[in-house]
Amino acid sequence: MSKIKSIGVLCSGGDSPGMNCAIRAVVRSAINAGLDVYGIQRGFSGLLEGNIKKLDVSSVGNIIQHGGTILQTSRCLEFHEADIRKEAAHILKRKKIDALVVIGGNGSFNGTYALHSEHGIPVAGIPGTIDNDISGTDYSIGFDTAVQTAIDAVDKIRDTASSHERTFIVEVMGRKSAAIALHVGVCTGAENVVLPSDTLNIEEIAKDVKRGISRGKNSSIIIVAEGEKEGLSHRIREELKNDHGIDSHVCILGHIQRGGNPSGIDRFIASGMGYIAVKDLIKGEKAIVTAYRHGEVVTVPFSECLEKKTDYLPQYINLVKTLSI
């Protein structure tokens, strides 16, 4: 058993629905075990500023149903520098914080693991990103809620598309990850899904739209993952119009996918991850990530979760193509 007496918790990178559930679980699990818990505001930036406060059970009351994060979050590019990480380690030691729980994505995990490797601070990562693109885990907090938010929006757009006999290009989040686009495409019956790794094939998109028209469909939905460069959806609209005579409208869902009340799935998994992160740190683990594998929450070595998961199972892509005919 370890001798840690206190734990710090922070969120880093983009927010995702369910982060509050994980914070709540970390705080209450630690207090239940007799530990002090400190909330660090605004991620690693807040840590460097000393923006740290002690939390109690009431601090996390009535937050499980809310999106975002009560601790707020930020992206701290300075944390790439070894001297900055050294200062962060000194701050944790001065504040008598023995271990750190970080809720975030792959970039945050790399900074956290470097902090542990260089200064020996016990750390636990909880995967929180709507892109579901962290290696080593089947699931990251916020993905289910983001997908359902996008599905609800596309269902409403489909009503308008049908009423006006229009084609809509709906852009969802996913600069490098295909996860949201694939799931939304299948669940909304989209005629075509454009993924970040795809070479844009306007001919195929136009063929899919015209195939639907030929069998009596009066509307079409094209789901587009945003990709790393802005403007992809507008480019598709222009080429469909100029090269194939197909009028379409662009709807960019944007950051509404990050917000909203977390789904039951996100609340449950996030709560389990917060609990097991604290439990294993108390057991003496030094560098772990809570992972969702084969339907259960486990902990795995930090080193397994430092890469982005960019490949998606081919059968998902084939599923979209098969069902969209």
TrEMBL record:
Entry keyword annotation includes Cell division: no
First-level EC class: transferase
Function per UniProt: Catalyzes the phosphorylation of D-fructose 6-phosphate to fructose 1,6-bisphosphate by ATP, the first committing step of glycolysis.
Record comment: activity regulation: Allosterically activated by ADP and other diphosphonucleosides, and allosterically inhibited by phosphoenolpyruvate.
Pfam short name (any one): PFK
Residue numbers binding Mg(2+): 106
GO molecular function term, any single one: ATP binding
Protein name in the entry: ATP-dependent 6-phosphofructokinase
Broad class of the protein's primary localization: cytoplasm
Any one of the GO CC terms: 6-phosphofructokinase complex
Gene source species: Halobacteriovorax marinus
Catalytic activity: beta-D-fructose 6-phosphate + ATP = beta-D-fructose 1,6-bisphosphate + ADP + H(+)
Subunit details: Homotetramer.
Span of domain Phosphofructokinase: 7-279
Binding-site residues, ATP: 14, 75-76, 105-108
Pathway terms, separated by semicolons: Carbohydrate degradation; glycolysis; D-glyceraldehyde 3-phosphate and glycerone phosphate from D-glucose: step 3/4
PANTHER family, alphabetized: ATP-DEPENDENT 6-PHOSPHOFRUCTOKINASE, PHOSPHOFRUCTOKINASE
